Amino acid sequence: MTSRGETITMLDDEGLPHDFTLVDVVEVDDQRYAVLQPDDPAAGAVLFRVEGETMTPVEDDDEFDRVVDALRDLEEYDDLIIEDGTDEDAGEEGDDKDDDEEDDGP
Question: What is the domain partition of the chain in residue ranges?
Fold first, then answer.
């Protein structure tokens, strides 16, 4: 597997490449997970289950929550924002800033 800080290029469902930086590989309940940060600094990190040399997105909500809870227990990831594709998981700091900007409109 790639080392922390290295770039990983993954293909989406349409075959388009997307670059990610490997933040870390953690083990939760005897399963390894890769924490990847997209090149867009505003986007939150994403989780992938590591199975041998293959990484698959974590789609099960319970599994996702277990991994995020384990990451939050580690001090070095206190400020890490993990995206799961829903608005509910957006970071509060970012939401407050966006709300202020929207309220200043005409």
Answer: 7-103
